[in-house]
Amino acid sequence: MSKFIFVTGGVVSSLGKGITAASIGLLLRSRGLRVVHQKYDPYLNVDPGTMSPYQHGEVYVTDDGAETDLDLGHYERFSGVTTSRNCNYTAGRIYDTLIKKERRGDFLGGTVQVVPHVTGEICEAIRSVASPDVDVVIAEIGGTVGDIESHPFLEALRIFRQKEGRGNVMFIHVTLVPYLHKAGEVKTKPTQHSAQRLREIGIIADLLVCRSEVPLSKEIKNKLALFCNVDEDAVIEATDVDHSIYEIPLMFAAQKLDDFIVDHFGLNAKRLDLKLWRDYIDRVISAQRTVRIAMVGKYTEVPDAYKSIHESLAHGGAFHSTKVKIVNVSTDTIEENGPEAALAGVDGILVPGGFGTRGHEGKIEAIRYAREKGIPMFGICLGMQMAAVEFARNVLKLKGADSIEFTPETPHPIINLMEEQKKVMNLGGTMRLGAMPCKLATGSLAEKIYGKEIISERHRHRFEFNNDYRDQFVKNGMKLSGTSPDGGLVEIVELPDHPFFIGVQFHPELKSRPIDPHPIFRDFVAAAIERNKKVNS
Ligand code: GLN
Asked: For a surface tag, which of 238, 317, 372, 393 has the fewest beta carbons within 10 Å of its beta carbon?
């Protein structure tokens, strides 16, 4: 049966537990092991779908339509696994399930309690992904040891290890080893306290991943091992990487982290093979050329809000041995100063997804600028919808054209609410969500990019292109190059007379991987390189 690795965090948040878990997933998969990732989030929202990007960053959507934590994006990008609904549980979801059971009468006569019921529900969620086809389950626990809200999760893990047997469970604690510049020393005490805090709960860490600004000496590592109760080869340092987060697995591999895990569980694994991964890093490091891509969004000051897009651009750039410099352009700036001032000198313009009325006029202006100046333009979800609205307003001359999300009384609802969406009352989990097939038109840019006729991409939106306007768009030069297989829904628009202009209703950024870049990002960067050469020649 499956083995279980639990990744916890101590001292401070934002230490990179997600990347640590994802890197471990990559190492184990590269040794031929079958891996499933899970993330447990201690907050009470049932899922992050209703949370603002300011609070939570990007919402990552799985093939099966779950709105999940952005760490699942790291897992997919590093490990190459495909995640699903069962890979992300919040405290809210655990409680929701439990309370529904209570209302149904499942516990009739009994008191429902954090222990054993909440903890039992957590253990069940962990077991739900274990199977004879899975060698290792890697579950990351959000939050920091010592948080009140993490406590039931950690208690559940303690119970889980008790029941599964020590040899089948491993605890990895990600912690901070600060460097005090004035004293010129690294300090082990916060990590000692953090490991002690875990032991108070009954959890003894098997391995420490120590985030540190500076490399840790043998002496410091041995001190950490002694006082935190781990083996000497179980202190892994995680210093800042120079070029790319994708170097982190290589750093762990150099310290034989994979060997430690394989030996701990007595697994039968092949030798580590990270060739494709190293090739990727080599392309990143050796990239000489740089292109500048404008990201026209309203959350530009929150780096995590467009996490997967940033990563996908890096993947697309590395494919061409090119650095992609992302120029964050806030929609507010475009609305205030016009697109020329904000977008001068960029090689490509990417208009990402979004919700709510603020900033949508800025997106429309950026798209007009890209269309008129022949600058490569890539619109995603709301970006595609705004490309349609821009075309309606400025090419079809349909005054007041808009999405009904922003102007419900518009005379030209280019982007409309789907029939089944009109009945929706609850906001959580009710959009058009998850992977859907899409049929590409023969001879289109989309077909050239994907190199096939039927594709599958993930969606997260409520509104759709209004079919009443199809003829006018086509007659005036906008190609509707991707539709749902029955032809009912427009999924991709493009301008054949433009160097590169494409808008997609889905979120391709969710499926890009460093060693397998998404073809639209790959070709968008290629178009930006062409533009850059043309302008500078
Ligand atoms: N707000 C738009 C909709 O709901 C676009 C969503 C998005 O960009 N993800 O359809």
From this structure: 372
